[in-house]
Structure formats: structure tokens, C-alpha cells
Amino acid sequence: MNGMRFAFLCREKPSPTGKKVAIIGAGPAGLSAAGYLVCHGHEVHVYDKLPEPGGLMLFGIPEFRIPIYRVREGYKELENVFEVKFYPNTKISFGDEKEEGDDFIKNVIDFNELVQNYDAVLISTGTWKSSIPNIEGVELKGVYPALGYLFRIKSAKLGHLSWDEVVPLEGKRVIVIGAGHTAVDAAMESLLLGAEKVYMSYRRTIKEAPAGAYEINLLQKRGVKWLELTVPVRIIGENGEVRAIELQKCKLSEPDESGRRKPIPIEGSNFQIDVDYVIFAVGQKPTPPKGADIAIDKWGNIIVDARHMTSMEGVFAAGDVVTGPSKVGRAVLDGLLAAESMHRWLMEVRK
Amino acid sequence: MRRILHVDYSLCIGCETCQGVCDFLHHGKPNIKIYYTMSGLPIPINCRHCEKAPCMEICPVGAIYKDYDGAVIIDPQKCIGCFMCLAVCPFGVPSFDVKVRAITKCDMCVDRRRLGMEPACKEMCPAEAIFFGKPEEVEERVRQRTAEKIARERISTESFESFGKML
């Protein structure tokens, strides 16, 4: 067996407690929490908007980083051995605003209805809303948020989408804006899928790149043109499609109080590059269930107390939807800690 | 039966899952931790349970021993906290625990192994960069993974003919 063992705390299902828990979001936080809870005898149902559990581990992060079998065999063990019930293609509560990964939704369940039907609920829905800067031309065909871009490529690899529905890359010129892990992955997948030229634009230098200089250097060795100290000013279209991008050079300010050096655009340094696609990898925002009456902070993250409980009694939250975009491991730990707290609450408070 | 816990640095993606589960099991004091180099490369550091463990040889009070799987274990009752093990460890692993007033480190999840389970970091690593088992089993699996990686490298450096789809 080569899957992730989300229920690593036990070998087999213990005797049941009779408690029923719903988890919204089957990413690293949700699946780790599910693993903890089944090892403590609770019945666990997991809801997810995607066609299969795994979250970003399966639908965002490329296969050359996380092998597909690792995640698939992992959730299958939860399903087959620990009797976790998965409800794929299901979104909890629905707002008008679209997020990445909404393509596969078949069922919608009201959040309050779900809360009524379970002894406790965990929200681990992550950060699926992409930030796109408000510049001229972002509405053009050929402009994509990096997560949505990677999501479609992975969906095709996983067999949920036909390759005809994936952005064709052979012979295309791509520019990725940003220098985090998502930007690096978008650039790498573009290369692997046959892009003719890949550019990366970042407003600071390689030294500040969140993905680290090592990853950026690796991409440069593979032929990616690294354009540091540049910001996109506008995207130029032709017949509604991207034709080129206009970038402006910048320089870094002296460090401010926080030690960060701000990029300052240089007047008259604008230049254009001919590209077919513009991919924005400049951040993700939290996506808690829409319409749920729970407190969020000014960035949209769910507010939790020391018990990982939200402002609604019996509703807990964990992972990126609480912390903002982080790492698989931090979501796993947060999911485990929240589940531990849920278990305590279920056994003590809700006898 | 000799069993090894092997962390493969070339397969590690720096996701910190090993650290997260170890942190959870050890209440905020993980025995495996990711360190980032100057170039931003993530390197997980933990005890490698050496065959000829320098810490065991140097320990003046004989507090370090090997269990039935070959895991290098420190007895907190015997440990005098002199840090000689840290001085000779090639990986800088031994760590002083103020609560138990002794050096602690990874024990290859001894409690879990007693129950027939495997080290938690290995169980949960999404990248399958951590291996556990008999040396020959681990080696076979590592080579299999390496073969996949070599194939991928070779294909992606060839002319771009949409090979990415095959991967």
C-alpha cells in the first residue's frame, strides 16, 4: 500500500461513539481531520465540490511533486477501511460569485441544513478565489488565474476533463505573473505541455521570490525567461484575445519599518512582449461556505478560538480557510488539532 | 530485524507534512523539521538512525542504545545532558528537552512500531519521499521512484512534443 495514511493514528476502526461529523472540503486539512475522527470512533461524512477527494494535493499541485497514487490510495483507504462517506461534486451553500474548481458542482446543500444533521461540522474549504489585479485587458480571452489553469490541466490528467477543454499550449507563448509556488508550477506545466516560450514576471528580485531562488534557477535552466523587477501595466488584445503584455520596470525602495522593500515603478520604462496567455499567480483568497453566518476577518479568513471553533457553536474550521494560503503540512497539522478539539468537545460538551 | 527510516532529499517537496504530523504526535516539538537553505531549497532534518551511530559511541554514560528494529534510542533516565551526542552527530539532530531534562530525538515512532504501525512521517508524506522497512525493500522502492524521475527529466528536456500529457 503506497497511499497517504490519513488515519495514521490507528490500524483499524474502533468501536463507534455514535457521533456524526460532517467535513466540508476534502483537502489536506479535511482528510487529516477525517483520519483522526474515524480513529476515535466517529462517523465521518466528507463533502467536496470536486469530483474526487484530495483538494489541491490532487487538483492543484503537479504530479511531479505529489504522485497521484499517494492521494488516491490514501482517500480510498479512508473510504474502504474506515467507512468515511464521501460526497463529491457537492458544494455547501451557494453564492453567485464563482471560484476556481466550481466546474464540477452537481449538488448544492444548504449550510444550515448540514449543521442541523450532524453533531459537529468542520469547515476546511481552503482558498479557491484567485486575486487578479485590476488592469486594462484582464477580461481578454487568454488571461487565466494560475490555480484555474493548473486545475484544468490536473483535471484532464485525472480523467475528469477532456484534453480539448484544457488550454492548448503547443507552440504558445506564456507569461506567468508572480514567483510563488503556484507561479513556478504554472510555468513548469506550461513547459511540459509544449509551450514555445515561457516568461515569468515578478515585481521584486530572485532573492525575494517566495518560491526560493533554487526553483527560479531551475526554471531558467529549462529555458524560462525570468523578468524580475517588472509589473504588468496592461494586456493588449486583438479580436478579444491576448496578443501582448505591457510591463513596466521597477526598482526596490529602501527597506520600510517591516524590512520589506517595495517595488517602485520607473517612469517611461515600459516595454511590450508578444504573448498568447497571461497567467496570474499573485495570491488566493479564502473561500468559506457562502451565506454561512460565521465570523470572518477583513481578509475573509474564518475566525476561530483556541478550540478551533468558529463563532457558531459546534462548527469548527481548519486549514487555509483559517490561516490563508500556506502549505500542505500546515493544513494537515491544523486539521489534526481541530479534530482533536472536536473530539474533546463531542465527548465532553455534547454527551 | 533491521528496519530503516530513509528520507530522500531529492523527492522532498518541502510541504512540511512530516513536520506537521510529528509536531502533532509530540505536542509542539517535532523530531523532523524542514530547514530552508540560502537558495530556498527545503531540507528535512531528522535522526537517520545510523548503523555505526557516533552518538552511541561517544555517550559517556551509555544512555544511547539500539532497539530490535535498529532504531537509535536515548534513555532519558540515564542521559546526563552533556550534549556530546550533538557534538558528534553529522546531522545536528539531538535536542535538549527542558521538561524531561534530557536529550531527546526521533525514536522512529517506537510506540507506533510496538502496535504494528509505521513511523507517522512516512505514513503521511504526500510525495512519498520518506521510506520505512527492511533495507533491501526501501532500496528497491527508492530506485523505482528514481527511475520514474529520470524518465520524466529525460522526456521534458527533449523537444516539446506535448509529452507532458503522458506524465
UniProtKB/TrEMBL annotation, chain A:
<dbReference type="InterPro" id="IPR023753">
    <property type="entry name" value="FAD/NAD-binding_dom"/>
</dbReference>
<dbReference type="InterPro" id="IPR036188">
    <property type="entry name" value="FAD/NAD-bd_sf"/>
</dbReference>
<protein>
    <submittedName>
        <fullName>Glutamate synthase</fullName>
    </submittedName>
</protein>
<dbReference type="GO" id="GO:0016491">
    <property type="term" value="F:oxidoreductase activity"/>
</dbReference>
<dbReference type="Pfam" id="PF07992">
    <property type="entry name" value="Pyr_redox_2"/>
</dbReference>
<feature type="domain" description="FAD/NAD(P)-binding">
    <location>
        <begin position="19"/>
        <end position="333"/>
    </location>
</feature>
TrEMBL record, chain B:
<dbReference type="InterPro" id="IPR017900">
    <property type="entry name" value="4Fe4S_Fe_S_CS"/>
</dbReference>
<dbReference type="GO" id="GO:0046872">
    <property type="term" value="F:metal ion binding"/>
</dbReference>
<keyword id="KW-0004">4Fe-4S</keyword>
<dbReference type="GO" id="GO:0051539">
    <property type="term" value="F:4 iron, 4 sulfur cluster binding"/>
</dbReference>
<dbReference type="Pfam" id="PF13247">
    <property type="entry name" value="Fer4_11"/>
</dbReference>
<keyword id="KW-0813">Transport</keyword>
<feature type="domain" description="4Fe-4S ferredoxin-type">
    <location>
        <begin position="38"/>
        <end position="69"/>
    </location>
</feature>
<keyword id="KW-0411">Iron-sulfur</keyword>
<keyword id="KW-0408">Iron</keyword>
<dbReference type="InterPro" id="IPR050954">
    <property type="entry name" value="ET_IronSulfur_Cluster-Binding"/>
</dbReference>
<feature type="domain" description="4Fe-4S ferredoxin-type">
    <location>
        <begin position="70"/>
        <end position="99"/>
    </location>
</feature>
<keyword id="KW-0249">Electron transport</keyword>
<keyword id="KW-0479">Metal-binding</keyword>
<protein>
    <recommendedName>
        <fullName>Ferredoxin</fullName>
    </recommendedName>
</protein>
<comment type="function">
    <text>Ferredoxins are iron-sulfur proteins that transfer electrons in a wide variety of metabolic reactions.</text>
</comment>
<dbReference type="GO" id="GO:0016491">
    <property type="term" value="F:oxidoreductase activity"/>
</dbReference>
<feature type="domain" description="4Fe-4S ferredoxin-type">
    <location>
        <begin position="3"/>
        <end position="22"/>
    </location>
</feature>
<dbReference type="GO" id="GO:0009055">
    <property type="term" value="F:electron transfer activity"/>
</dbReference>
<dbReference type="InterPro" id="IPR017896">
    <property type="entry name" value="4Fe4S_Fe-S-bd"/>
</dbReference>
<dbReference type="InterPro" id="IPR000813">
    <property type="entry name" value="7Fe_ferredoxin"/>
</dbReference>
